[in-house]
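If I may wish for something, please sit down with the protein I am sending here and say whether tokens and residues agree:
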Amino acid sequence: MDKFKSEKLLENLKDGAIAGRVSRRQFMEGAAAAGLTAAAASTLWSTKVEAATPQWGGSYHIGMHDGNTTDSLDPGTTEAVYMIQLNHTTRNYLTEQKANGDIVGEIAESWDATPDAKTWSFKVRKGVEFHNGKTVTPQDVVDSLNYHRGDDSKSAAKSQLAAIEDIKVDGDNVVLSAASGFADMPYMLTDYHLVILPSNGDGTIDWQSGIGTGAYKIESHEPGVSTQMVKHENFFKSDAGYFDDVQYTVINDPNARGTALKTGAVDAVTTLDLKTVGLMGRDPNIEIDDTASGSHVTIPMFCDVAPFDNLDVRLALKYGFPREDAVQKIMKGYATIGNDSPIGPSIPYYHEMEQRQYDPDKARYHLKQAGVEGISVDLSAADSAFPGAVDTATLFQEAARQSGIEINVIREPNDGYWSNVWLVKPFVFVQWGQRPTPDVMFSLAYKKGADWNESHWENARFNELLDAAKGELDQAKRTEMYAEMQRLCRDDGGTIVPWFTNRVSGRQKAIQHPEIISGIWELDGARSAERWWRVS
């Protein structure tokens, strides 16, 4: 048997064994046919098959950053990492993005659309139960989505759904009708706010109780402290939710988080301190997961507040940020340099542009053009935005002085950062999770009037292209539209995007996961409690 056929056979055997279609005896016989010795086949079985075969039972305890006393179970207000994780553990969505990027049905069993992509029909999966035993109905779905659409809605997802004119029940289906083509509808419905919750029967939903359809149900929840959960015995996915119980504990300090993992106080942590991750990885009991992602840091400037309302000032600050130094010194190389657009190399329609570099001379030029040489600005930072935010602010401060820019670093409290600083103060640090498509990211944070337009940026051409691209089914035309939008963000926008962040987390070796994990959010797209398992 030639090498290619041998490798293909072994890969098929491995996949079949993991899926339960191939017994150990069949695996060993097949491996021998592929040319492996008995010892090599046995090693392959133990390292690739047994390790990748989920086991049921045991507890799972995560030490998590970005938990706040201001956190709420209201899905419209979800902002922080802790609550994003909790939403994906206790609740579900119409659609789900798998680790390989594919969109599949979750509460929706299937869907179809009209040729113009204006009308989408989602068939609601039968037999899905809420934690209280109630069966999910199409009306639950309609009311859950409409919760974010009302005139009085304060939901951060309101702008995401603005293009939808009507949502209604049609038998077992939920039909969404948009004003114009909406090619990314299944992707948009994975947004972490858009969980499906029980209807109260009057058009409202019950979000206060914490009842959802997720793999785990809440037993106790103290915002900013911890959440205790137990298995939802009637969870509709037969190949997920392996643990008996799950606990989340807020550990905002990165050093304390690393210590908790090293001592075995927790089974996994969301994000490791990059200064010590190398040392942590030498521990024989700990595994490090380093996953590339479209998650990115932003430094937004309010474009309607002086001095950021001047494009030359914004460009000066963009040229004044030391991108390469930051990636090496702050991120220890676990990141990709950004180019002031939120669409990174792992996102569809990514457009490669000339890389903006740290250039004090260009920064000084733009300050002179603005007539504000020797400018001073306040920059708010807290490590709850992302570990290392305060150090990044200090690095920015030192580098910007070379251009005649004085940055006053304001160290904000970690607790309440998302409610008291972000979207409130004009120059701050933020970390965004990866969104599945440019339309989702742009509609959420760059569109005029979007609730999370963190830079208050308004560009008529950008908004015109956003509306046109949303319904454009010609991929070549859509590609060029998104390319122009990325250039507008880079050259006119109010947001510095210094880097795209790898997801670097840690876990005990007893906690195992599939070979491919998602980088959309921390810990496998915020689904580690559902997708991972404990080995004995």
In short: The radius of gyration is 24 Å. The first helix runs from residue 3 to 18.
